[in-house]
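Protein 1 of 2
SEQ + STRUCT:
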Amino acid sequence: MENKTVAHDIFKDPDQLLSYYNIQAADFRMRHTAIWTEVQHYTWVLSVVLGAGPLSAVSQKSLTPVQLGFLLFLPLVGVVVSILAFYIIRRDFVYYSQADSRLLYIEKQLGVVKNKGYADERLHRAEKSNFSVIQDVKQQTVIGMRSVIKGRIRALILTTFIVYTLAGIGEVSYFAYLLFHR
């Protein structure tokens, strides 16, 4: 006798859907916490690495070539770390948006968005009849100059790492100039 399992549509069973919602909500919270922890750690490291050079250069009147070489190395590390941080955190924002959109889809299936008195800006995104997770993620992960001007936090955080990169390039240029034009 053949054992057949029948596929069950959890979107028609509110209890299973709520259970799945809890799993997605935990994933969403974990991603949110991870992003903020990463931002903290990267900014701390970059502040130390990129701040050490100018502080050392200002505190001493004349620097030896060895000291200048070391001061040239620090901002190079800072540039690499800031570029890595930019791409890692941008990727994490995509995963965060996916988790948010999945939650929003489930909330729509549960009828949360139908209550106009409860709906906020986030829930209004799901009111469209053709709402899909894929389309919502695309809209949430667009980061450009318009996002920076609007003050979207994701764009501002990523802009911080661009500024760190530019500061590191400036420091590399300055210390390379001092090292090779003595």
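Protein 2 of 2
SEQ + STRUCT:
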Amino acid sequence: MEARVDQWLWSVRLTKTRTDAGRACRGGHVTVNGRSAKPATPVREGDTVEAYVGGRQRIVEVVGVIVKRVGASIAVDCYVDNSPPPPPREVDVPVFARDPGSGRPTKKERRQLDRLRGRRH
């Protein structure tokens, strides 16, 4: 059995919509067995699909071919994920924090805020 690569990417929940999967293929972000894939490229069991989706490189081996979108627990059984781990998330640390309920900032604090925001010298 075989399926279109855009349909398969959507079915196993690697993309949110089939349109997104088609755009990724047309944009050159999807390869099947090392070759650039168009949306209608067939996918069979044993194929390796590499896709740059969701800001992340995904490398998956096709274990099961499905053409309809299924639940996440079933979709995970249709591929083996060989993707590199996602990069660690950056934590935003507030640079200038004020205690809640401490009133309006003083003139000195407003100047500090303006310097942080690059509004004044």
